[in-house]
Specification:
With about 450 residues, this protein is of the alpha/beta class. The chain has 20 helices and 16 strands. The protein is elongated and about 95 Å long.
């Protein structure tokens, strides 16, 4: 097949003629009698090209163009129009349509326009492949995301990996702090040496010193043999101290000494052992606030905080949700053998609208469950868990009581628009579905409130 085409026209005879001509030329076609039918088909599958009449009963071809461009600004759309509506067709091209054809259609002109359109589609795809390859070079393989905040993470990791400086990773639970720590190790000269991780919150205070430094036989009740600690076992490599903010102050002092002196002593031991490890720490706490409270040592903080990496929560990089979801679909399709190929657009919109308090870890869990529960080859809204669909049913807005003093509705609307634009990286076509608005309506409100991307406001 040369490619897939969706034909949208409220005249049945016109659809049949176009279907016959295009299928004879090797195109895969489907047809819809109006905009609503077309949108239902587009929710189920993607088409390379949409060939739509401009004027139809009910919603027009311009309405369809607006909806399609909001979902996918790269979609190729060609308008069909009567001679008297050419100005409207030209206006459609200004809104993103590739071209227009005047009715009555001439077969040769139709096929020539299709050939030109598919040549352009092929070039766009090649460009996307090249862009993806460039992005893959810049991206760290174990970490997924093209959001600017993630690109900053990649930049820092690449810049500092070759050093032995300590690294402190800030991020909420589930954002992938250990993945970043491993990326630092894997790109460093220490990559052939051990990478060892310890969760400071998961080990009792009485045992953490032994876990880190090791112990000699008989050093405490139950110490029936010498045990090598994580710091000694990882010598030459990297140690990842997760949830460092949970470590008690007494243990913090011992860790500080080990980092400063570059040596350790096993519990119950009498000799100091040389230490050559890179320390990468992570926390979801504000350590500077913990210092003020007296629960974290300031001197240790400055030793650990030489390089700081801030991992954004998933809600702040909403443009990565679709990419991550697709990745997890492939991962669990291969792990389970269940033939799930992708996610339907209505289900994806629900995922995009959700706030993800558990971040990437929660998204992975949701996709794993959805792959297992899917009734067909495409994940539908009914395959998603209740916490996602119940929010998606009303656009992600949590009901609330109006305060007695009332609200400033315009200020609230403006704040919601700014939040949606930030989540969508200031791309109107991505922000409009989040707010349940059309592209045109959101553009009007942006102009009404004078909302601009921060960089532009500063110029």
């Amino acid at each position: 097949m040369k490619g897939s085409i969706l034909i949208v026209d409220d005249e049945k005879g016109q659809r049949e003629i176009l279907t016959m001509i295009l299928r004879k030329e090797g195109y895969d076609t489907a047809d819809a009698a109006g905009v609503q039918d077309a949108l239902k088909l587009l929710d189920k599958r993607a088409f390379d090209l949409i060939l739509t009449d401009l004027k139809m009963q009910g919603l027009s071809g311009l309405d369809l163009l607006e909806q399609v461009m909001a979902d996918d600004p790269g979609q190729c759309v060609i308008m069909m129009t009567a001679h008297g509506s050419v100005d409207s067709a030209v206006g459609a091209m200004k809104r993103g349509a590739f071209d227009y054809l005047e009715k009555p259609l001439e077969r040769d002109n139709l096929l020539l326009t299709m050939a030109r359109a598919f040549e352009r589609i092929s070039l766009v795809r090649e460009n996307r492949v090249l862009q993806k390859k460039v992005a893959e070079i810049e991206r760290i393989p174990s970490i997924i995301g093209d959001h600017p905040k993630m690109k900053e993470v990649y930049r820092i990791v690449t810049k500092i990996a070759a050093t032995s400086s300590t690294v402190l990773i800030y991020g909420e639970s589930g954002t992938g702090k250990e993945l970043v720590a491993r990326a630092v190790h894997d790109r460093s000269p220490r990559h052939e040496q051990p990478f060892m991780a310890i969760n400071c919150a998961a080990i009792p205070e009485t045992l953490i010193e032994s876990e880190l430094f090791g112990h000699e036989k008989g050093s405490f009740t139950g110490a029936n043999a010498r045990e090598i600690g994580i710091l000694e076992a990882a010598n030459g490599g990297t140690v990842f101290l997760d949830e460092i903010g949970e470590m008690n102050v007494s243990m913090q002092a011992k860790l500080l000494r080990a980092i400063q002196e570059k040596e350790i002593r096993r519990v119950g031991g009498k000799i100091n052992l040389p230490l050559d490890v890179r320390i990468v720490s992570a926390t979801n706490r504000d350590l500077e606030q913990e210092i003020r409270k007296g629960t974290f040592r300031e001197d240790l903080f400055y030793r650990l905080n030489v390089i700081r990496i801030n991992l954004p929560p998933l809600r702040e990089r909403g443009s990565d949700i679709a990419t991550l979801a697709d990745y997890f679909v492939v991962k669990y399709r291969e792990a389970t053998g269940i033939a799930v190929e992708g996610i339907a657009k209505p289900a994806l919109r629900m995922l995009m609208n959700y706030t993800w308090p558990g971040n990437v870890r929660q998204l992975e869990s949701v996709i794993e469950r959805s792959v297992l529960m899917a009734e067909g080859s495409i994940i539908q809204p009914d395959d998603l868990p209740a916490e996602i669909t119940s929010l998606g049913a009303h656009g992600g807005i949590v009901p609330f009581e109006l305060p007695p003093e009332g609200i400033n509705f315009e200020e609230m609307e403006k704040a919601l628009i700014i939040k949606a634009m930030e989540r969508a990286d200031w791309i109107i076509g991505k922000a409009a579905p989040i707010l349940g608005l059309s592209y045109k309506t959101l553009q009007y409100r942006l102009d009404k409130y004078g909302i601009e991307k921060p960089e532009r406001r500063g110029r």
